[in-house]
Every structure is written in structure tokens, then in C-alpha cells.
Amino acid sequence: MLHLLSLNYTASEQAAGPFIKDHVAYLERHHRDGTFLISGQTVPTSIGGAIIAHGADRSTIEQITAQDPFVTNGVAQYTITTITPGRVHPGLADVLKPDN
């Protein structure tokens, strides 16, 4: 399964500023463990960001997003959309195998 994680600020970007370093460390940790495939800011950046995650069930993803420093410090929240891929680009087939 894939999960589209939409991060939306619940406070200003300025209020999120003090937590950026810890948020980036959080992203890097989950990229290293292979759960996060893609992450980045939205355009415009004032909205928040987005992540594509895989390799975990929804309840695990909910636990992971609850640990984001932006969330724990009350400056953002996630909306999680779970996707069961029906068709996959051949270039992504190995990455998105069901056992990954």
C-alpha cells in the first residue's frame, strides 16, 4: 500500500520555524528506513508539505505522523490518504513490490 501524507500548517510558517531542524531529522530518519519514498514542500509553501510513504499499514503510518515534531508542537497536522496501486509505472515496479 501507498499512503499520501498531506501536511497542513495549523499555525503560521513562522511558528513552525523553530521546529524545522527536528522535522528534517524526522524526514531523514523515515527516508533512511525506506518508509518515505518522496517528501517535499507544497507550492505555495504556506500550505505545508506532502510525503509518499509505503511499506507500512495505515495504523503504523498514523503513529509515524503523530511523531512529527511539527505535529507534536501543534503547528501542523496530517491528512492520510491510503492508496492500493492498480497500475504502476515499470520504473517503480521494484520499489513498490508488495513485500517492500
Descriptive notes:
It is a single chain. The protein is an alpha+beta fold. 30% of the residues lie in helices and 29% in strands. The chain contains four helices and four strands. It has helices at residues 13-16, 20-32, 58-66, 69-72, and strands spanning 2-9, 36-41, 48-54, 76-83. Strands 2-3-1-4 form a four-stranded antiparallel beta sheet. Strand 2 and strand 3 form a beta hairpin. The chain is elongated. The protein starts with a strand and ends in a 17-residue tail after the last strand. 19% of the residues are buried. The mean pLDDT is 93.
Write the SSE topology.
Elements: E1 2-9, H1 13-16, H2 20-32, E2 36-41, E3 48-54, H3 58-66, H4 69-72, E4 76-83
Antiparallel strand pairs: 1-3, 1-4, 2-3
Give the DSSP E fraction (strand runs of 2 or more residues). 25-35%
Elements, N to C (H/E): EHHEEHHE
Distance between the ends: 9 Å
**What average pLDDT do the residues reach?**
93
Rg (C-alpha, Å): 14 Å
Beta strands, count: 4
